[in-house]
Specification:
This protein is of the alpha+beta class. Helix content is about 25%, strand content about 25%. Helix 2 packs antiparallel against helix 4.
């Protein structure tokens, strides 16, 4: 745990204010849900709550099925880390997401590589020692105008054809549909 040097008082209703600098650094926004944990009897720990994390088993199934249907690597992440991955990408599970994915989530729109989008130079995931895949498609998972995570379609070497970079309309539609299905499950 890292000390911030910030001290706040509880008000009469038991509330504290998280300083603006800390909210900006931790990418906390108005309306974000925080889970409250205690450790020992002296510490209170706040963690960003991700409702998508509760569906990790379902997300795992969706990754598997989607990867088989469109012959590609698939990853599903919440706003902080990878939750589920197709068979060949399991090493990325629990890896924190990098700045490119954070920007895609922040922009709230579908990213298609090569479709007038800037080429991503930074790592997609923060995990040393792993070869970073190339992003082909990213579709945000949104619930009530709030981004909960995204589905990523990564580059894959096809037998005798090299690495697939372009995204077909079928692939795009399948990933968009999967994002909508996950959002519906979150809304239940």
């Amino acid at each position: 745990m890292k000390a911030t040097g910030i001290v706040r008082r509880l008000d009469e209703l038991g509330r504290i204010v998280i300083p603006k600098e800390l909210r900006r650094t931790l990418h906390l926004q108005e309306g974000d849900s925080l889970e409250i944990y205690t450790r020992d009897e002296q510490e209170i720990i706040l963690k960003r709550y991700s409702s998508l994390s509760e569906l990790s088993g379902l997300a795992e199934d969706y990754c598997s099925v989607l990867a088989r249907c469109i012959f590609s690597h698939v990853i599903i992440c919440n706003t902080q880390q990878v939750l589920a991955a197709s068979e060949t990408q399991k090493e990325f599970i629990n890896a924190p997401i990098g700045l490119p994915i954070q920007h895609i989530l922040h922009n709230r729109r579908v990213y298609i590589a090569g479709n007038q989008e800037p080429k991503i130079q930074e790592p997609l995931f923060i995990r040393s020692g792993l070869e970073q895949p190339r992003l082909r498609l990213a579709v945000p998972i949104t619930l009530a105008a709030r981004v909960e995570g995204c589905i990523l379609l990564l580059s894959v070497a096809l037998p005798g054809q090299g690495i697939a970079v372009t995204v077909t309309e079928t692939e795009r539609k399948c990933v968009v549909l999967t994002a909508e299905l996950l959002a519906k499950q979150l809304g239940k």
